[in-house]
Amino acid sequence: MAGQRTELTANNLTVAGYLSVPATGGPGVIVLQEWWGLVPHIEAVADRFAEAGYVAFAPDLYDGQATTSPDEAGKLMMALNIGETATKLRAVVHALLAHPATAGHPKVGVIGFCMGGQLALYAACENPEIGACVDFYGIHPNVKPNFANLSAPVLGLFAEKDAFVTPEAVAGLRSELDQHGKTYEFDTYPGTDHAFFNDTRPEVYHADAAYDAWDRVLRFFRANLS
């Protein structure tokens, strides 16, 4: 199942991105990019969600820019306006809830990878309409979720050998969620590196961990968005 580049509009704001819709409709899921931008890998993840019965939208947070250079990706990530991004994500939440294909589903899910993982946490704290949040090894130094406002359960999936999201960082996130009495489940995959889910990067992709993580994500969304 293949989606298409399109735009969603809500709250007097139009957000470009990639939309993939199953024939039978289903709950909405927001797919948030890594620091590379809205690249084919993220579009493929949206298509996988549609195949699983979810109306998936991946917003283009860099407004058309994307890169394969780590240096350029870092610059794009750090230049991201967090306030504007929060406004975009709120519009996407409302647009997905209003989409005919999500009729009957009062909550949406959010999932993000790397930079997108941290933004998924942030979005879930800002939007009570988000009913489930998945964080794949999320990191962004300028994104500070207000966990006091979090109402969605969180699934956190991390890599043992992650030099960006270290075991100490995961422990810190766990501590913050515990302090606020939030519902979460974390798993760290042994022998894996940051971005182990990205099958377009053979130097870090870990097929077994990615397969298990995808199964965990689908079970998590089924339990919380159905």
UniProtKB/TrEMBL annotation:
One of its GO terms (molecular function) is hydrolase activity. Residues 16-223 form the Dienelactone hydrolase domain. Keywords: Hydrolase. The keyword Hydrolase applies. This is Dienelactone hydrolase family protein. InterPro entries: AB_hydrolase_fold, Dienelactn_hydro, Dienelactone_hydrolase-like. It comes from the Bacteria.
